[in-house]
Amino acid sequence: LRMSRKSVTFDQNTRTERIAVVNVGDEPLTISTRQTTDGITLRTEPEILMPNEEGDIVITYAPSLRPKHDIATVIIVEGCGTARPTERMIKITIKH
């Protein structure tokens, strides 16, 4: 999986960020992640990326409570075969 960028920032006005991706492998990919911070969800469009297909990772931030301070976290994209974790990390910053 090749990502156009590996970080996103949410502020008071931003609720959704997109990262352009392409499946550079030989197998279809179904991408997921474990939730690390309340209110952050991830999905892909399309849901399954075929080999050489372009798409988007869509990251949404909808917290149940507004944070009192800035948050910096990392999510690791799952379903990318044997890619190292550092190649699958997306840094997320949430500005108070």
Describe the structure.
It is a single chain. The chain is an all-beta fold and 96 residues long. The protein has strands at 2-3, 7-10, 16-22, 29-30, 40-45, 48-49, 54-61, 71-76, 89-94. The strands form three sheets. The chain has a four-stranded antiparallel β-sheet, with no helix packed on it. The model has no long low-confidence stretch (mean pLDDT 89).
Q: Round the mean pLDDT to the nearest integer and report it.
A: 89
Computed over alpha carbons, the radius of gyration is: 14 Å
Count of helical stretches: 0
Straight-line N-to-C gap: 31 Å
* Low-pLDDT stretches: none
Q: What coarse outline follows from CA principal-axis ratios? A: elongated
N-to-C SSE string, H for helix and E for strand: EEEEEEEEE
Which secondary-structure class do the elements indicate?
A: mainly beta
Helix coverage percent? under 10%
The main β sheet shows up as:
4 strands, antiparallel
Strand order within the widest sheet? 1-3-7-5
In total, the number of strands is 9
Quote the beta fraction. 35-45%
